Amino acid sequence: MKIGRLPLDDKTNGWSAILPTRTPKPALAGDVTADWVVLGAGFAGLAAARRLSENCPDQQIAVIEAGAAGENASGRNSGFAVDLPHNVGSSLDELAGSHRFMRLARMAIADLDYTIKSHDIDCTWSPEGKYHTAVSPRGVKEILDPFAKELEALGEPYKWVEKPDLVQNIGSTHFTAAIYTPGGALLNPAALTRGLADSLPDNVSLFENSPVEEASFENGVHFKTANGSLRGSKLIMAANGFSEQFGYYRNRFLHLVAHCSLTRQLSEDERNTYGVEKPWGLTPANAFVGITMRYTKDHRLVIRHGLNYCPSQRVSASENAAIKRRHKELFDKRFPMLPAVEMEHTWSGFVCLSLNSAPGFGQLAPNVWSAVCQNAMGVTKGTFGGILAADMACGVDNPLITDMQSLGEPSLLPPRPFLDIGARCRFMWEHWRNRHEA
């Protein structure tokens, strides 16, 4: 089959722009054969390749990536390794599901922490926890109060933070209250993805800048690129939303786009005016209208705002310029003491969601397994999805596979154009209904 749509690197990713120059691994050239093929070098693909190497040390694993490691979706998120589900329910079934998710997420975080320390990966990995914030009293009542009760039911530690303490901790008066949870980590996702790619085991070969133009799944797996071909007996599909192009999960994924900006480094005078020393990260009570924000170790502020339906998986330069201006306006409202601070980098990242929030995980064919559709929590979900897909493919008896399977399968979407109309109407409704959290 011909592959019709591929990732496009528009060279705007701020997380990689602030890093030293990296030379990607060579592109695929000539005819290459491996025991295993992994499609995609994001968090899922790199985790799968590393686990396959552990499970099958005498076999050859080939990872093929359309772009450069750290430049596509995995390297463009806001840099949170999250250990708690975004939405916790209060029923016994929902609480049990939350416990399963936390086991999975914490396994992934522990695995990443071990790999980062073992290979000295400099990705500003920082176990700072995060704030979950509400702007309005209504947001406190509807989101934070139930969240606190559910954390208590889960037996999870948290701290309720009122506005005066929150202002002291994050330097903004914009929020009414927050719940601080100590788990998880903050990081530069492009640096982590690069580091994971550059520290793969010896029996793993990585081919970057090698977009697959044609795919066949007869007698194993056969991918063709502009300058070569790759054959393997078995495949781990880790191409996230682009897995549709290879015939899997068609009409199952919603493609959204999120926009992020990173300021220049604050000067010493600006840091003194700002008055906050420790890095922090916060997530909003409502992701449609609220802002995800961070203060980094190197004294930059991060804003992620704007979640929209984007089936084309493309953002134009003019759209990016408009987003940059909007992010500056939002920044000035939240940090009026820093009027001269500009957005140094603005970029977009594409998010793959399913209608029922289920991942694309499991065996798709006798020789194909998948770890795709992370539903906007790619650092942890991609990592544990890749690890467990590799274990499943190798027949490893890992009890966490059952936890993963309990998350369900992506449900079928309405056909287009009904999907487009419905998605855009839903987004308009969410923005209007939750405007108090802007």
Q: Would you kindly provide a written description of the structure presented here, covering whatever features stand out?
A:
The chain is α/β, with parallel strands linked by helices and 438 residues long. The chain has a domain at 14-76 and 190-252 and 356-415: FAD/NAD(P)-binding domain. It has eleven helices and 18 strands. The strands form three sheets. Strands 1, 2, 8, 9, 10, 11, 17 and 18 form an eight-stranded mixed sheet that branches. Helix 3 packs across helix 9. The longest helix has 27 residues, at 92-118.
- SSE series: HEHEEHEHEHEEHEEEEEHEEEHEEEHHH
* Beta-strand percentage range: 15-25%
Mean pLDDT: 95
Q: Give the beta-strand count.
A: 18
CATH topology heading of the domain at 14-76 and 190-252 and 356-415: FAD/NAD(P)-binding domain
| Poorly predicted segments | none
CATH class descriptor name of the domain at 14-76 and 190-252 and 356-415: Alpha Beta
Write a brief caption for the model.
With about 450 residues, the chain is an alpha/beta fold.
Task: Please name the defining characteristics of this protein.
8-stranded mixed beta sheet; FAD/NAD(P)-binding domain; 438 residues; alpha/beta; 18 strands
Helix/strand layout:
Blueprint: H1 14-17, E1 30-39, H2 43-55, E2 61-64, E3 80-81, H3 92-118, E4 130-134, H4 137-154, E5 159-162, H5 163-170, E6 177-181, E7 185-186, H6 189-198, E8 204-207, E9 214-216, E10 221-224, E11 228-237, E12 253-263, H7 268-274, E13 280-284, E14 292-295, E15 301-309, H8 317-334, E16 343-354, E17 360-365, E18 368-372, H9 378-394, H10 400-405, H11 418-433
Parallel strand pairs: 1-2, 1-11, 2-8, 4-13, 11-18
Antiparallel strand pairs: 3-7, 4-6, 5-6, 9-10, 10-11, 12-15, 12-16, 13-14, 14-15, 17-18
Helix pairs in contact: 2-9, 3-9
